[in-house]
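BUG: 3D viewer hangs when loading the predicted structure for this chain

Environment: internal workstation, default settings.
Expected: structure renders.
Actual: progress bar stalls at 90%.

Input used:
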Amino acid sequence: MFKIKNLLAPVLFFIPQLFFAQYTDVINSNRPGETMSAYGVGKSVIQAELGVYGIKEKHDLLNYDGSGFGTDFSLRYGAFLEKLEFILDVQYQAANYDTPYTSYKKNNFRQTVLGAKYLIYDPYKNKREVNIYSYKANHSFNWRELIPAVSVFAGANFVGADNPYYFSPDGAISPKISLITQNLFGGGRWVFVTNIIADYIGTDYPSYGYVLTLTHGFNERWSGFIENQGYKSDFYSDAIVRGGAAYLLSPNMQVDASISTNFKNTPSILYGGVGVSWRYDGWYKNRQAANKAEEKAKKNTDNEKSIDYQEKERQRKAKYE
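Structure tokens produced before the viewer hung:
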């Protein structure tokens, strides 16, 4: 279904590096919600997020029923800067539709987006405060939690000609931009993410929308979320609610499941999906290990040139001979 959520509130239980870099100790996936996290995967980290879903539609006014399945895939890569992430987001759907008079199919890409996200502001940068003697101090409300991390996303939609999910028979490339905010509450156990989106900019039917996601980490492996999404254009408007859960299999792999529905009958929509997220952080860890070794070498006094005190004494006496 959808790709975005930092359904990884469990990630935030492993806070060591979260406040100093985009990289976290365990995978930070955007699945299975629709919001895009403000934080990236980390420089030189590559991450893949794959899902499959089923869909049922019923339109009371146009009198049709539809059912089908789809798959979505996101590829994320941190490059050049710690705050910069490149994203490829693809969704393909195949569905059959039946009316009292005929049947037809829709098989094509619902979405192909390529773009980049940049972290503008991180309220936690260089402000990690942990009191190892006080549980209350580490889990009580902090006013700084009201200040969100802020990112921006800019990319392009690529639509081929004769795509039945697009409003025009002609292919097109159009801009897409998003403003992303993210708050951490309760020491990271609760995560609130907002996306404000402008899509298909410059076309005959630009779309504007929002997504609000609240995620809760139950423990170091399980997390759940609820989400509200709304979008509006002259071509199609809707409001959707979804919920689901994610389970951390390992520091670099997560599985998830979710369900989505709307509240209207033109059409009514029901989605259900499962997915998996995987990352490769070997390059990042190798770079970190090299940096630590370099710093250690600089601080290691054993690497300094040893002083020959006997030779210094001989040189001192030679001055007076």
